[in-house]
Design goal:
This protein is mainly α and 322 residues long. It has helices at 15-60, 77-84, 87-120, 125-138, 142-152, 157-164, 179-189, 192-203, 207-215, 220-248, 252-258, 271-281, 285-309, and strands at residues 63-64, 72-73. Helix 3 packs across helix 8, helix 3 packs antiparallel against helix 10 (220-248) and helix 10 packs antiparallel against helix 13. Residues 1-27 are annotated as: Disordered.
């Protein structure tokens, strides 16, 4: 007995349905090309001025290159010499770490303190904000660094002012124990940029929180710890990351104050200054490239650690709704 299939025939495929996704993708591409045209200067600049030099630097870090002869491949020799056979390299690392550990907290503390004072001001806030911000624009120049060196040199104004109070330190620039702190103070003096960011963050904290804390009996110090710092923690984190990254790359003040040689007794031999010396003074550009890549890796690791640990102390007002 034969069976008759009752299955309905499959509907014929509409060719317009298959063409529609292709037309849609083509339309999207046609709408995107103006964006790529406007982005092309940045894309070309990023490739030519950043990616290509980075690739060349990575290659040179594995070579013996003196700026005059062709690079000669030596593998990991630059890295092994740096890590195991170069005591000046580790002195530069130690000096840079000391500078970062001392300068960054002092700079951020001063910036936050001045920002809180400016927030409480009525008249003249714009003037003082500009006045405190000005050193951030001027302090990175070689001229200001040379003036700073004169202030902290033997017979300079700082030594004379301290001797007036019975503190005889002599010139800081020539003292191996104090020279690095002259660079630290120059950095701390340039607190204007993080101060402006702190001030903007303080102005965003609702006043209702302070009123509620005052009703609960909290004093100024308790309000600062329980309201200001938690609400300002994203701004603190932002400034902390930027200042640490910038501090690891300090060069101009160290070069000017030390005369370019990291003296006295390598007390101001910062990492970037030693990199410059090996690359352009000693013409060991392959070694300098290896130093640059280790610095990049170190900054990346420290930044990653900061982001990982920020989950425990950075508070975002809208995090409960996310």
């Amino acid at each position: 007995m034969s069976t008759v299939s009752t299955r309905a025939p499959a509907p014929a495929e509409d060719p317009t349905q298959t063409r529609r996704p292709a037309r849609k993708r083509r339309g999207v591409r046609e709408k995107q090309w103006p964006a790529y045209v406007f982005l092309s200067p940045w894309l070309i600049g990023a490739g030519v001025l950043t990616l290509v030099p980075m690739a060349a630097s990575l290659y040179l870090s594995f070579t013996d290159y003196n700026l005059f002869d062709a690079p000669r491949w030596i593998g990991l020799r630059n890295y092994s010499e740096m890590l195991f056979d170069d005591p000046r390299y580790w002195r530069s690392v130690g000096t840079t770490l000391l500078y970062v550990v001392v300068a960054v907290p002092l700079k951020l503390a001063l910036a936050l303190g001045v920002a809180m004072l400016l927030k409480s001001l009525g008249r003249g806030r714009a003037f003082y904000r500009s006045a405190f911000y000005a050193p951030s624009l001027l302090g990175a120049s070689m001229t200001i660094a040379l003036v700073w060196k004169a202030l902290f040199n033997d017979g300079g104004s700082v030594a004379g002012a301290l001797s007036w109070f019975g503190i005889d330190t002599g010139g800081w620039v020539g003292n191996p124990d104090l020279a690095v702190y002259a660079v630290v103070l120059l950095t701390v003096w340039q607190f204007g940029a993080p101060m402006v960011i702190f001030l903007a963050g303080l102005q965003q904290i609702p006043s209702d929180l302070y009123e509620a804390a005052a009703l609960d009996g909290a004093g100024r110090w308790r309000q600062f710890l329980s309201v200001t710092l938690p609400m300002l923690s994203p701004v603190v984190f932002f400034n902390l990351v930027l200042e640490i990254i910038n501090s690891f790359q300090v060069f101009t003040p160290a070069f000017a104050i030390s005369g370019g040689n990291g003296g006295p007794a390598d007390s101001t031999m910062f990492y970037t200054l030693y990199l410059y010396e090996r690359g352009f003074t000693a013409s060991h550009m392959g070694y300098a490239a290896a130093m640059a890549w280790l610095l990049l890796i170190a900054i990346g690791v420290i930044t990653l650690i900061l982001f990982r640990t920020s989950r425990t102390w950075v508070f975002y007002a809208d995090e409960e709704g996310r």
